[in-house]
Fold these 2 entries.
Entry 1:
Amino acid sequence: MDHFERQLAQMMRDTEAPAPFEPKHRERLWAGVRVRSRRRAAQRAVGSVLAIVGLSVGLFLLPGRTTPVEPSHPGPQPATSPSPSASPATPDASLSAPPSSDTSTAPAAPDGNATIMPPPSTSAPPSGTATARN
Amino acid sequence: MEQSRARAFDEFVAARWSALLHLARLLVGGDRHRAEDLLQESLVKLWFVWPKVADEAPEPYVRKVMMRAAARSGQRRWWGERPVEQLPEAAVVGDVSADVVERSRLEAALAQLSPKQRVAVVLRYYQDLPEGQVAEALGCPVGTARSHAARGVAQLRQLLGHVNEPVQ
């Protein structure tokens, strides 16, 4: 620290003027404290409201919240498997079934008995026709 | 509880007002109104942390808040200088003592510096802070703080040339 710097430091200290803390300073200071208190309270209130709104929106938008939890329906049956309700198990039922294109063309048995046809399905082999020939 | 807290705070402010205001005036370059604004803002901040710092070091806390605010003052619009047609404080004839003249010259010279240079000079030479703490207050590396102080002192050396002469 050279001479000028020492002088500068001394000058800064020596130039301090006495300044009493007057009532107007006190009033202004407490007014500033009140203003800042109100601002902090308002910020806290706004923050709380925003937090509640955000939480509510988040809960509302949670995935699956509105979907009722119920047992799921049984899965669809395979199209090729015979359904007990749809396909008749007894030969009598086949007699009353409407004739399909295969059965209508099949010739009747020589003995007059009706030919037992398998239930109509797409993958069933046309064994009924072969049987009719026998 | 609140009453005793307010009373202790009031006593502290009343006791340290003069010294803190002088520091504020040096930090802002002599403008009394700006200095009071700076000090009041810092004291309001102190009030909200008073329970934490009252028993330890309330004055260093205020000083640190003032230093940081003063260092940032160049970036704040509301502290920008506004030209006016008439000077708000006219010099009173006959009230020109040697101390007042000296203080006015010092403050006018400090006002010529940039905010960071001014804060660096005040902290370094008035507060006797080491370079590390000056850098911390300015929020910059130590080398930058040293540079601010050196440039500020160099400019003050030109503006206040007469104090460079040895005192007889």
Note: The mean pLDDT of chain A is 70.
Entry 2:
Amino acid sequence: MSTTATAPRPESTTPSSAKGISGKPVTWRTPIVLAFMAVVALLIFGILGPNQEASFGISSGGDFFQLPAIIVPAFAAGIILSIILLGLAGWTIYLKTKGTAAPAWLPVLFIVVFVVAFLIWVVGGARTPSISLAGLIAGSVTLAVPLVFGSLSGVLCERVGVVNIAIEGQLLGGAFTAAIVSSITKNPFIGLLAAALAGAVISMVLALFSIKYVVNQIIVGVVLNVLVSGLTGFLFSTVMQSDPQKYNSPEGLPIVEIPLLSSIPILGPILFKQSVVGYLMYFAVFAVWVGLFKTKWGLRVRAVGEHPQAADTMGINVNATRFWNVTLGGAVAGIGGSFFTLVAIDSFTKEISGGRGFIALAALIFGRWNPIGAFFAALLFGFADNLQSILTIIGTPVPSQFMAMLPYLVTVLAVAGLVGKSRGPAASGIPYVKG
Amino acid sequence: MVRVLKLELRGITKTFGTLVANDHIDVVVEPGQIHCLLGENGAGKSTLMNVLYGLYEPTDGQILIDDKPVVFRGPSDAMAAGIGMVHQHFMLVPVFTVAENVALGAEPTKAGGFLNLEQTRKKIKDISDKYGFDVDPDALVEDLPVGVQQRVEIIKALVRDANILILDEPTAVLTPQETDELLNIMRQLKANGTSIVFISHKLREVKAVSDIITVIRRGKVVGSTQPETSTTELASMMVGRSVSLTLNKAPANPQETTFEVRDLTVVAPNGQHVVDGISFDIARGEILALAGVQGNGQTELTEAVLGLQERVSGSIRLDGHELVGRSVKQVLSAGVGYVPEDRTVDGLVGTFSVAENLVLDLYDKVPFAKGISMSPAKVLENASSRIEEFDVRTPSAMAPAGKLSGGNQQKVVMARELSRPLRLFIASQPTRGVDVGSIEFLHRRIITERDRGTPVMIVSTELDEVMELADRIAVLYKGKLVGIVPSGTSRDVLGLMMAGIAPDDGASQAPSTSRAEGGDHV
Amino acid sequence: MSEDKGKHVAEPAPEPADQPLSAEQARAAKADLETAGGAKEPSLVPAAAQGGITAERDSSPFRNFFAGSAMTSVLAVLLALIAGGLLIASTDKQVASSAAYLFGRPTDFLAAVWNAATQSYVALFQGAVFNPRAATVAGQFAPIMETLTIATPLITAGLGVALAFRAGLFNIGAQGQIIFAGIFAGWVGFALHLPMGLHLLLVLVAGIIGGAIWGGLVGLLKARTGAHEVILTIMFNYIALYFLRFLLTTPAFQRPGASNPISPVLDPSAIYPQIFGSQYRLHLGFILAIAATVLVWWLLNRSTLGFEFRAVGANPKAAQTAGINVSRATILVMAMAGGLAGMAGVAQVAGTEKVLTEGVAASFGFDAITVALLGRSSPWGTFAAGILFGAFRAGAVQMQVQTGTPIDIVLVVQSLIVLFIAAPPLVRAIFGLNPRRKKMATAATSPKAALPGGAA
């Protein structure tokens, strides 16, 4: 997505001597933001931290071997972790004075430590300062599944130069189709396939209007969300409600447990005790990443999304590439949508996707248009989502609404350039009109 | 090893609506030849090459390779036939590495569609070594200087075994040193059997490297000639006339100096000093023309006066008031009339009516507005008188300005800027892309403004225009002022100045080829 | 950008003096107008609508109608209604049973389809405009009053979206702006106790300010950091929603003694008076919506500010060169858009709902986008579109009661209308009136594959 609606083509697409050999300038933004966050952490998690012990359960009942819960003195942990944060921030400042940018992993590490500090602080301050870490993480992954698929759909579309605001609609369409097809056929796998198809069809409309009719991609996306919401709502009321037994009792996808491996504490449930959709998620992230960055297809896709004219002069059909990638993206989101009705809940309800398509969009941006980045961003947002409900149960000082707000706030910070530099594909959102 | 190809274009015609860009053009490129297509901007050279590269379908005519007719449906066909093209605006993906850019479209793969860039890297290394390109296959293109990016474009063609390489205005974006290196590369390529079609309008480069020169004017081949032909002769072939339009211009009657620029420096976002310590004055009733090759700081200089540039130091004083640090609105209110160099981008709002465009920077002034309330009647009234005064050919005052022809669009901009009492008038490229009839009209209006006692600053890359309008000529080179000379200064001296050689040492020092780019500008 | 300009005509040779543009050049120029030579996204606003005083606007409404845009709009609405009708029919039991013997008696099937669709639409009409079966005259006119009541927030929020469109900004944030307005206006309404008149005025002002802050913040972030307003407004919608949810759990906002998230009822002095007495819900907000439409029309077409907004929307570089402060315009227009959406929030809190709940914005913020698009971003077009969609909403309730057709059909029709309107060639193709088909075919072959580098 280009930075402004009316922006001329970004500078970077026209080679200019202006850039010089030195490359991108190192800004003060990241160091300042990190330093600010570190100080906040020191004040709130550290100095004003709770004087309780936070308990994190690691093993669940059926685990391979049992580990004792981790007991952390919240106050001390707050202080120590904030000092680590200060150290990391200080290092970026030092690097900046040397004129070099911080390595990419540093902000990631910072975020991880910050989240851990936050978690200890929030649990330590709760009425019952004890949560199951295993449950928290497993729940986060579960909640993240549709987000990951949604953001992968966004990656596929934006990388090829089409903005996909319709992720929400694709998830919803996938959820509905999976439910009804699985109900009728009594076969969840056909439902899964149908969900992918539904997502692809929605995407084709997006592609048709934005590529053939050169309609503003954002308009099409926004309108498609409304259309799918209306269609599924209508069919839910007319068809599904008429005979829920027949039309809205989808056969769920089984949870496939890999013996032994699934009993590993924490990692077991999230990696080896998943539904087919869950396993597909890991595969999809990997496949999209490999596809985009290691294959001929990916090279062409990225070229089309960055500099369509260049791709065209090298004999690549820009609009066909766009059309089929957007379609593929829709299929991926459709699979994500099936998670709602085939895994999470055993029936369809109106608006079952509940705005997760937009969180997926946020994850895509926060993950910097990279499948792996989007995956971790989606995990983070899934974590926030899950934490929100757990926090309400254990009773903490942080209102759960603020936890729910987090993905959106983080995204605002990301697009405003306060957390690193998010640069989408240069030609995203700009139609390619030959001649 | 190298296939020897003979390329022939026979009767190529290409029209866009009523506009005939190429009119029965015949060109034969013999194997291993550097064949130059010489012509002014807009003569039809690039259209011809886009036809040859399969980007345009010719309206009529044939392309023959080794005397066999071929039809190119797209660039892939042209590439398969051994034709490579280096576009004036590079077709490189900035965030890709050199190897990725070179591989794009013909990617070597392992099983399963996985990229195998090792092969590409090796090829790049080979070519790079062979021609001394010094290109790192793993460097990001956006980090490379323009000259190196151009080599990547050449590598892209060579990797595909191009036997005929089209270079479209390749020196337009290069520094003199880079130009020299490119000319050497071209000679090496020729020595290795590659034919080159070299498109240019810069005489010195053309003479330095070509085996044969075909001159194109207004879409037609004017003739072919040898590089030994004299510069003046080539120029007149190219332009089609030895005399330019002459204006009956009264001599200037300069009065007091009201516009002073002192030590003006403009720093680009990348830290480069695009305008570097320039000082000059303009008196009332005088036209100062800024001459120079495109991109030597003229744009930034005028933008600095208007307040569009961010990092400006030094002083710009108009009627004793400092303009540096003022907003555009304040500068305009101080009585500056400004005609930007690209009217469609900076001068007009295409979807607005002619009437609205005629008040684009006056909309909030009396009589067009009182407070924040605008008066459409006054706007239309103003429009009809301006349209009449400047002879703007438009269906109505309400027609969108974007639908007018270039000349009429420029008249709209000029009419707007000249419609109020001015203390300074700046016009960049006042007649670029404007038909001959309008050129004369616009020039007269500029002279009239001068004779009203307004200091006038003209920026033009057209030496003809500069010599015609200017009372004094200032030449910029790489952001520095080479010198200010009187209007009668000879073309040769100005040419040298445009290559950065000041008039006093220019007489004794012959221009080296490395400084050739400006001198040939006709 | 400049190099992209020459896209359609490679190497424009010196033009023959003042020759009128050829048809092909004119078409290319038009495409150029819409997309700035392909260098930018297709405009949100049709080029013809962006100019203030242009030929298209001043010509007679009839000419305009047949010339294109209005005609396309009508056909788009028709097409969407037909599609909606088919959808209704497809789930109708009568239709399903007659389909069983489709080949035996196809007329039965067609009649069933016709009945299913028309019955629903007749019910919709009766619920939205005039109900002849009502017992009293007042009851007969109740539907149109309900339509106008529902249209009120749609119009003002739609105006907010339309205004931003005209400045080149895509404001998806009406939802959040309505919520913020609701928070501000609601709090003033139930927490302060002021005299009649003054209280309501303050409620209105607070709401507008609330919306303006939320919108202006997006403008500020966009102007300062270049962040894309679409992403910002989407995120701001959710932030506003969760913020409201949080507030409704705090003592300052939650109704004393209530366990659910609901605010106290607003003071009677803070409520919009009902225009036609207590029998209809229609309130002062509708009059204010008309006033807002007039104001936005004036702002866009008769004020210097509107001139700036439109110039920035159409060509920010030229606007900047002409001395217009683009950042200021961006912030200002987003604040104003937020303020207009804020009026919708006030209409909800102080008009129809009289309390602040999580659902204060319903889906008005999203509907506003379709309203503005259908209205082609012109103030009166938005007004008309607001009433049309208000009618759909009001009528849909009646339709659901009478025929069992779910309200969701409105969303389908609404979004189809916008899709069709956005792609006039599709509509023309469906109705078989593509006047330029032949020419387009030739145009497709000639200026083929022009490259940015085409113009040397």
Note: Residues 176-191 of chain B form the longest helix (16 residues).
